[in-house]
Known about the structure:
The structure holds two protein chains of two kinds.
Chain A: H1 15-37, H2 41-49, H3 54-85, H4 95-130, H5 138-157, H6 185-213, H7 226-258, H8 271-305, H9 312-325, H10 341-353, H11 355-369, H12 378-400, H13 403-409, H14 413-443, H15 449-475, H16 491-520, H17 522-525, H18 562-573, E1 585-588, H19 593-609, H20 613-631, E2 637-640, H21 642-665
Antiparallel strand pairs in A: 1-2
Chain B: H1 23-49, H2 57-77, H3 87-117, H4 121-127
Helix pairs in contact in B: 1-2
Bound molecules: protoporphyrin IX containing FE (HEM) and copper (II) ion.
Amino acid sequence: MLGKLDWSAIPFDQPIPLVAGAVVLVAILAVLIWVVVRGHLPYLWHEWITSVDHKRIGVMYILLASVMLLRGGSDAIMMRIQQAVAYQSQGYLPPEHYNQIFSAHGTIMIFFVAMPFVIGLMNLVVPLQLGVRDVAFPTLNSVGFWLTATGALLVNISLVVGEFARTGWLAFPPLSGLSYSPGVGVDYYAWSLQISGVGTLVAGINLVTTVLKLRTRGMNYLRMPMFCWTTLASNLLIVSAFPILTATLAMLLLDRYLGFHFFTNEAGGNVMMFMNLIWAWGHPEVYILVLPAFGIFSEVVSTFSGKALFGYRSMVLATMAICVVSFMVWLHHFFTMGAGPDVNAIFGIASMIIAIPTGVKIYNWLFTMYGGRIRFATPMLWSVGFMVTFIIGGLTGVLVAVPPADFMLHNSMFLVAHFHNVIIGGVLFGAFAGFEYWFPKAFGFRLDERWGKAAFWFTFTGFWITFMPLYIAGMLGMTRRLQHYDVAAWRPWMIVAAFGMAVLSIGVICQIMQLVVSIRNREALRDRTGDPWDGRSLEWATSSPPPVFNFAFHPDVRGEDAYWDMKARAQQQSFEHDVPEYQDIEMPRNSPTGFVCAFFASIMGFALIWHIWWMVILGGIGAFATFVVFAWRDHDEYVIPAEEVARIDRVNLEERRSLVSMAGAV
Amino acid sequence: MSDQTHIPAGHDLAPGEEEQHSVGERILGYVVGLVLALLLTATSFFIAGTDLVWQPSIPVALIVLAIAQMGVHLVFFLHITTGPDNTNNVLALAFGLLVVFLVVGGTVWIMSHLNANMPPMDQIMMRQ
Ligand code: HEM
Ligand SMILES: [Cu+2]
């Protein structure tokens, strides 16, 4: 009846996950009860859960990423403490538990923190920057988000029901095969990635189409803000790389469920094929993450330097070059596994070549700052911090891309330091920069600068204290993923790293404090003009938060830095001459399709993991039926009458006019 | 979202979308495509089994026929043309082909080297 599921699935003998699970459960219940008792449920349902507004969906993506960041961060703290104490002893985490933690940490951080964070920011900002009213496929957008949330839910359920994979975040066979991982851990891993992978693919298709097909009047390709370009590149990579991941995991699942032999040792299976395929997705994936971050830094650096982006065209070229070359380097993740000198040399050189467009970008940012009037607001701090940090990460990347060097450094703590250096210093700093930069746009008030700066400095120094020792430990021969060790020379570095983790955690606490303080003081921090940073692109041309329809009129773009241009023109001519003729606007209706679909997908995923076949069928039918119902609906749009548009827009124009006249008077 | 597509000049077509043609013309297009596709399929089956041609040329012939088949599908069913309204589709196709080429080609190359360098234990024994 319940497949493999019974009471033994709950780890009663392991206090840590049980207590953690209980605390989370109580917290969720408390929030739910609060929501219901206070009568917020209808609001949540109508305004958020069923919303197909790209801004709302973007915010929900970012919320998901932030919550999961706390979960993944707790894993990180536990691992750092374990390695600090487990010298010539077992530490406090038994091996099978430690192995689950590092696997869950990697999986969560890449798939449920970094991905939703950047996808959320792209969702929130790109349509605004393009001057349009929504993404290309609004309801599909909601489906994509909720499927991602399903994946995250399944990973978290594994904490208390069953177990998670003990295989590392990429589940290499034969370890992840049925003979070495007979439990449900790998199934949790694979199904949550399969389901959230569909969501990611959907988001990718949606954003590519949005950039290619929906741009406002005059917004030709070479006038798009840099963030739109990197969004295009990143999502092209999603569309072309994620199917590889899906196919690879599907083969692994066939091995595990139906006795296939794709990646087994016997019967003609080939383990190295998994290695090859997963990295053919895996390397593009790191650029899927970091390209949007590059875009964010481009926006932030140019805004806070008060200058147009230096070398815009070379930046576009570098972005698209990275997009293509990132598909030519994947072997550098398994140099040591027998490909031989010819293959290693070619892929090593290709890997070093990819550092060139990245270097071009760094110089472009530096030259953008050069001679500019730089304002060191929080987003700018994250950007400058990124430049310093990422250069080190990039250089160690080039180092491990030299095959002979990689034979020494592969799978060592040096590698761990490298990729945290680029992922934290690149992607996470980028996500934080974007969060601070666009928060006023999303919510209509700015974030507290003092707490923001404190958060930056603690995170930044904490990062360096945590990860520089790992480079050294790596060069002292320490391999990754050790549950305990006996080498005295490594110990001090592990202790320093644990201390760094503490500093980093203070940074996270400051970030939370910043949010709390800013929400409390929101009246004082209110952004009435819609343009708190003296911005350059179109998202600042509408109010904060923007109305559902984003723009009452499609902006008319006449060059790069569209909004900067408009402001300049407006100062000379004032806004008066364009007293506009408002028109009705059609917007897509909200739809529960995404939520309902994900509800059934969660049931199906859970049932698949536990081999509860009747429930699989139930979930499958439910998800399919949801789609059919959606496809047959009659009214998919509603009309906002012209008077309503006018009323909303006049308020915004009024504020803006006073801003321009004030600036003109100065 | 009907009112927000503001791409001005050089309006472009989504894959499978058609320019205004009469129904007759369109049906004719599909029929021609179908006939060509069937012809190519039949030829492939014929070539695969025949001994009328030089045997080693058969795989090459099959590859050529397969590529022709793809071309027929692209032109008659997916309506890829070289016109300006098709730039996006052609670029998407080119990017897709590039990625497939890189991944499949790279995989074949890598796996052949791995197989040569890391054979199973018994084969290593045999070599020595
Ligand atoms: C300057 C360009 C870069 C080069 C040349 C480079 C090179 C490499 C190489 C050769 C490895 C494999 C080393 C080994 O396993 O022994 C590696 C691992 C890794 N890199 Fe980079 N990298 C670069 C940038 C990045 C960026 C931008 C990211 C992410 C945003 C990234 C994320 C990773 C990750 C996650 C791994 C380790 C995966 C694992 O084994 O679990 N790298 N890098
Ligand atoms: Cu890589």
